[in-house]
Amino acid sequence: PPKKKDIRDYNDADMARLLEQWEKDDDIEEGDLPEHKRPPAPIDFSKIDPGKPESILKLTKKGKTLMMFVTVSGNPTEKETEEITSLWQGGLFNANYDVQRFIVGSNRAIFMLRDGGYAWEIKDFLINQERCADVTLEGQVYPGKGADGSEKVKNKTKPEKAKKKKDAEKKSNGVKEDNRATNQREEL
Questions:
Q1: Homologous superfamily of 54-144
Q2: Long-range contact pairs involving 29-37 (C-beta distance under 8 Å, separation at least 24)
Q3: Residue 72: closest CA among 58, 86, 54, 92
Q4: CB within 8 Å of 173: residues ≥ 6 apart
Q5: Domain spans of the chain?
Q6: Buried b or exposed e, range 20-56, using 16+ CB within 10 angstroms
Q7: How far apart, in whole angstroms, are the C-alpha atoms of residue 105 and residue 188?
Q8: Where do the segments described as Disordered lie (predicted)?
Q9: Which are the contacts of 137, defined by CB distance < 8 A and separation ≥ 6?
């Protein structure tokens, strides 16, 4: 058993352990738990369409906080970006979507969703706005109505530095690694 200490001699670590012991015995409802301690929602595999990978993401993100980046087209000031994204947030609020908005640049904002299952519906709303250049969701960039010709590459993925390093290592090692299925089998 742990050595008994006078309560006046407790430090922060002792107080934290004491709080954990108290919370362990408490009956906390699932809704009150922080998101990382909640059990994941069960996934209904009958609703998954194998032809649409977005349907899998919708079900796995349901009930989890999700963030999406939105770029405003043109060359807006931060105040204009604030006004435009405020209108979009208001439209989403009127459609009963709980969205918080944070301005992160002169033409960029983050939309934070409490329930990531609605992210693709919100993305569809945003890309149909006149001043929306693009929406980035789960690493995928979706061009909006306001994108100019150079930005309208359908569903491109942002390049990652780590991926470039891996590709360089593969080429230098001469190892062929691919994600595609082939007709012939390679011996290991």
A1: ACT domain (3.30.70.260)
A2: 35/64, 35/65
A3: 86
A4: none
A5: 54-144
A6: eeeeeeeeeeeeeeeeeeeeeeeeeeeeeeeeeeeee
A7: 50
A8: 21-45, 140-188
A9: 66, 68, 119, 120, 123
What does the pLDDT read at residue 178? Answer: 55
Q: Return the pLDDT at 153.
A: 47
Residue 187 pLDDT? 64
Pairing of strands 140-143, 132-137: antiparallel
Whole-number Cα distances in Å, 96 to 91, 93, 99, 152, 185: 9, 5, 9, 30, 52
Q: Name the burial class of residue 131, with classes exposed (0-12), middle (13-18) and buried (19+) by CB atoms within 10 angstroms of its CB.
A: buried
Among 144, 127, 128, 123, smallest CA distance to 67 is for 123
Give me the pLDDT at residue 151, please.
Answer: 45
Residue type, 113: L
The two three-digit tokens of residue 131, written as one number: 């001043």
Helix (H) / strand (E) element for 156: namely strand 156-157
Q: Which residues of the chain have pLDDT under 70?
A: 1-2, 25-33, 36, 40-41, 47, 53, 55-56, 58-60, 149-188
Q: What CA–CA distance (Å, rounded) separates 179 from 149?
A: 30
Q: Which residue has the tokens 């033409």?
A: 107
